[in-house]
Amino acid sequence: MSGGLLKALRSDSYVELSQYRDQHFRGDNEEQEKLLKKSCTLYVGNLSFYTTEEQIYELFSKSGDIKKIIMGLDKMKKTACGFCFVEYYSRADAENAMRYINGTRLDDRIIRTDWDAGFKEGRQYGRGRSGGQVRDEYRQDYDAGRGGYGKLAQNHDVENGLGLKRELEDGMFNSHRRFLQEIPVLAVSHFFPQIVLLRLKPSQ
Question: Hey, what domains does the chain have and what are their CATH numbers?
């Protein structure tokens, strides 16, 4: 049997490093890769905003003893925003989580795990402009477990709604103004948007 085939048979694709690298890592790619290869910390993504730390602990403790869990937070609201970090005491237990928990369901969502170079203070916060994760800024579909529509889509709807409200109000005002110009015997109280019409006595 050739050496290449033996290597392929012995490989464990479930625990190999992915292509993802943290662009905010303070160091070069070589240093980050070294840390990833010996890390006991996993990044866990695609969580529901409603999944609790207790649920995560219950699931991930099946592969080994957990040292700590750090919940991902919206940096504005300080509420859960769909990711976390799970740190094990040993690399072997973290590898088991990669093998057996990655791709399973939690709160009816398929979660994904990946190696993390190690938690640093500040990384628990979302990196999106609105405070959550970047993926939730641009999402166009409705996801009940992650706050509904994406933040940009929500903002667009709000802006459109306010614009429509302004258009309606302007239209109502202009309509009343034209009406008042045509009938001079009426006066208007300018407490917009509630327009009070007062009938004046006819001039002598």
Answer: 11-149 (3.30.70.330), 153-199 (no CATH)
